[in-house]
Write a structure and sequence with these properties.
alpha/beta; 21% strand; Alpha/beta knot; globular; five-stranded parallel beta sheet
Amino acid sequence: MNITIISVGKLKEKYLKDAAAEYSKRLSRYCKLNIIEVMDEKVPEKTSEREKDLIKRREGKRILKYLDNRSYIISLDLKGNMMTSVEFARSIEQLTLKGNSSIIFIIGDSLGISEEILQKSDYRLCFSKMTFPHQLFRIMLLEQIYRTFKILRGEPYHK
């Protein structure tokens, strides 16, 4: 299985880079993982809705370059569907049974993901109604993908 994570912005703090490296190493047993970071836009303090939309569209164009029609695209979106870890694992399992061997996850910045990218997505996933920094969220997504493989293989996972 090929898993790609497209994320707006770079990991800056060492502890986040270390966590991402650890989960990437753990996932290497289960899948081919590719993490793509696209440049984020500066968001001024007082930004109109129109300006926010323009920023999301510019970031969306950068994301668009990495999307392909063969991959199943999952956007992380506050308005998306929520599921448990086991439900998430089963949905990934169903995708593979249907022949989807390539999954792309998209993480936007603090403004979210452009409407164009959301329209191209096959699924919109929401981890929580709470707001998390997108850098930390990348670690959370990596952990859930790792947990998915452990669940699907019936392997123990220490909580």
